[in-house]
Amino acid sequence: MARDQSLRRQVLVGVDGGGSKTDCVILDAQTKELLGRSAGGASNWNSVGQDAALNTLKAAITGALAAARVEQDGILGMCLGMSGVDREADASSLKARLQEWLPAEVELVVYNDSVIALACGTGGPLHGCVLVVGTGIIALGIGRSGNHVRASGWGPAFLDMGSGYDIGQRALAAVARAVDGRGERTDLVEATCRHCGVRDPQDLLQWAYAEAGWSRIASLAPAVLQCAEEGDSIAFKIVTSAAHEALEAVIAVATRTKLKSQRFKLVLSGGLLSRDSPFLDIILEGVKLRLPSAGVAYPRVEPAIGAALLVHDALYGADEAPSSIGEAACSSASRDGSPPRCQDRHGVHPGSHGKHSSRDGGWAGNLRKHRRAVSNVDAAFMKHVMDMPPMRASSNADGLGSVPQPGLDRLRLDDAGGTDSPRRQRRHSRYHKSLEML
């Protein structure tokens, strides 16, 4: 029995839970190789309720473990990056319910999803700003002293302006006005009907109220962005309003954390920021003009993998923490057909818990501990992270997930061409056109 126990594979579990979908990955604790993954529906419990969210999380974790051929007692550590986990009480409640289901010795860490996104974009250090826009929206800023400030992400009851839900809701309102004759004609009527699978706009009533939750309305956002791209003025007004709300959220956290007056990284994450669109153009141009000290970055690994690597840092402490996000990114993606995995510079010793245990703290406490652990990131490591190939996009049925990264690669290359590049000129034009509509 002792021999079987010693040979049992130990793994790290990473979860990215959002308002539209939930992703779970299993990494080998020693090699950080991706062993299995699973996906499920929404797990933002402010949207779907605590019981439904917990069931979705359990199903995703169980599915990923099955794909990896690992039992629950092989879990060494687990990190969840969750939208909707905005307070210490939220994190503590979620951890308590999961700990009833998990083996007692599992190191369990819960963060807001924006913390994971920031780490995935910086290569590990929790310093800078992040804007996440998908079904919902949140902006987070973490200053050099560790002070953290968030903006937006209050949910639909507070309009959640700038989010995919906001864009979808405004589109439905525009469609209703157009159909009634109370508003301008718009291509959104046809686009919305097509997306919802109905012929008569009146049937949108049944579609809109058929299910609870936010993701159904937010799933309209890509269609709205497409209409704006094709020149529909109503769609462009909707996108303009949302983009400026998102921009104001970033400026607010950069100002309140005092990052605005210094150089810092701004990580853009979430489905609506991973596609080339007027929405992204307006935000990027606004950042360039209003936050000139910000350097825009994109996640180098997907959030679920980043979550698994952050729990590694919680387990093993500062000596190995700097290698986690960057060094393991290639290894984690290798089974998905991405470039060959990188050689890890630091070994992992599964089975020995470090002194950075955070079972009793909320996400803000975890954040402070992790930030101390990775404060000594070296320049060579950061160069390695930035030289890595971009992460590969994962499929997402609701339409709010990542799209192929080459679009963003072209965006970066066009930026390198200076202010005269076609993309820069278009972005400049869209931004100033958007100002006229506010």
TrEMBL record:
Its EC number is 2.7.1.59. GO terms for molecular function: N-acetylglucosamine kinase activity. Residues 327-366, 390-438 are annotated as: Disordered. It comes from the Eukaryota. It is an enzyme of class 2 (transferase). Residues 13-310 form the ATPase BadF/BadG/BcrA/BcrD type domain. Belongs to the eukaryotic-type N-acetylglucosamine kinase family. This is N-acetyl-D-glucosamine kinase. The lineage of its organism: Eukaryota, Viridiplantae, Chlorophyta, core chlorophytes, Trebouxiophyceae.
